[in-house]
């Protein structure tokens, strides 16, 4: 296994919930050929203990700032963050929630400072973090707050599709209230900008879903399309955006519609993501747009029942690291070209 070149991007990988499959996946990184240098942000002993449970050899090399380390097969570079309590596969412990959040802080702050080029996150368990007393709705919102960004856009990539969301982790009853002229316009501007600057799509074509069945039936099945979505889309089209919609969500994902589109903007989480995850589960990647840093993530949860069994699939984490490295290289190239 050939190690990545010293000039490839350095991607910080957070191991996520210690009782879940995140540590398993990080152990697996030590035995894969990766498109980037990686540093795993986790408790060192957690990784070694999980490797023993899995019956997989593992060596941990301490991360040293500014030193490019090419590791041997079976080794991980680790930025050690200590657990608060011993972790066992499949058994959640609220005592370790602060540890989980600390790994995210280290990764995000390191990306902001330039210590890391990008970050890829393993899955966390939102309920146990909240049980520990932390208000936590997800990585997307946490990283926006940590980096001082007012609004971000969640986008998943996989199955030949890109699907972004106008709202993220909100209850279904709150979705309509979360779609305003300003928020929808800013979401589309963030999406357009990052598709151009980070994904190198010169003139993105974006398909926008309606909120209501049949995109509102001209106002007979809801007024959001008439009063909010259409005016925003018309305003941006007049400014040169290539936007189609609002379209009924039940027919939007037809292959004929998707053929010439670069991204779909769905109005809420479960409107757009079931289709993409059906097409790509296990290899999809979550990307947070609008941050001053590059962040990708796996497309799945903690899978507590699989932790420590050796049955967890590593494909989504590999793809998350690959995409993070690709975006980081593109950002570096744009920066070099501008000087």
Topology:
Elements: E1 10-14, H1 22-29, E2 37-42, H2 44-54, E3 59-62, E4 75-80, H3 97-113, E5 118-121, H4 126-131, H5 139-146, E6 153-158, E7 161-165, H6 181-197, E8 205-209, H7 224-238, E9 242-247, H8 249-252, H9 255-258, E10 263-266, H10 269-280, E11 285-289, E12 295-298, H11 315-337
Helix pairs in contact: 1-2, 6-7
Please summarize what this structure is.
The protein is an alpha/beta fold and 339 residues long.
Structure, explained:
The protein has helices at 22-29, 44-54, 97-113, 126-131, 139-146, 181-197, 224-238, 249-252, 255-258, 269-280, 315-337; strands spanning 10-14, 37-42, 59-62, 75-80, 118-121, 153-158, 161-165, 205-209, 242-247, 263-266, 285-289, 295-298. By secondary structure, it is an alpha/beta fold. It has 2 domains: 1-149 and 292-339, Isopropylmalate Dehydrogenase; 151-290, Isopropylmalate Dehydrogenase, CATH 3.40.718.10. The protein has a 12-stranded mixed β-sheet, sandwiched between helices. Helix 1 (22-29) crosses helix 2 and helix 6 crosses helix 7 (224-238). It is globular and about 60 Å long. The relative contact order is 0.17. The model has no long low-confidence stretch (mean pLDDT 93).
């Amino acid at each position: 296994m050939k190690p990545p070149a010293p000039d490839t991007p350095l991607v910080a990988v957070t191991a996520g919930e210690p009782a879940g499959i995140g540590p398993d996946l990080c152990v697996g990184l030590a035995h894969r050929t990766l498109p980037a240098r990686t540093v795993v942000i986790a408790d060192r002993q957690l990784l070694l203990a999980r490797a023993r449970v899995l019956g997989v050899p593992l060596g941990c090399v301490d991360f040293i700032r500014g030193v490019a380390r090419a590791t041997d097969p079976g080794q991980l570079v680790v930025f050690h963050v200590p657990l608060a309590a011993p972790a066992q596969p499949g058994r959640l412990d609220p005592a370790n929630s602060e540890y989980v959040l600390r790994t995210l802080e280290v990764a995000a702050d390191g990306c902001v400072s330039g210590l890391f080029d990008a970050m890829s996150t393993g899955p966390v368990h939102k309920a146990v973090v909240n049980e520990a007393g932390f208000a936590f709705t997800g990585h997307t919102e946490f990283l926006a707050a940590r980096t001082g960004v007012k609004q971000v856009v969640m986008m998943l990539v996989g199955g030949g599709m890109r699907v972004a969301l106008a709202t993220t982790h909100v209850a279904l009853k709150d979705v309509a209230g979360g779609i305003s002229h300003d928020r929808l316009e800013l979401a589309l501007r963030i999406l357009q900008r990052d598709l151009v600057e980070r994904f190198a799509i010169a003139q993105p074509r974006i398909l926008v879903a309606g909120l209501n069945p049949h995109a509102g039936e001209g106002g007979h099945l809801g007024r959001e399309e008439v009063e909010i979505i259409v005016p925003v889309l018309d305003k941006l089209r007049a400014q040169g955006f290539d936007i189609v919609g609002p379209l009924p969500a039940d027919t939007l994902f037809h292959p004929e519609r998707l053929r010439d589109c670069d991204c779909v903007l769905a109005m809420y989480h479960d409107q757009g993501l079931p289709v993409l995850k059906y097409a790509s589960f296990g290899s999809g990647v979550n990307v947070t747009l609008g941050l001053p840093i590059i962040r990708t993530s796996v497309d799945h949860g903690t899978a507590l029942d699989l932790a420590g069994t050796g049955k967890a699939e590593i494909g989504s984490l590999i793809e998350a690291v690959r995409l993070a490295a690709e975006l980081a290289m593109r950002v570096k190239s744009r920066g070099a070209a501008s000087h």
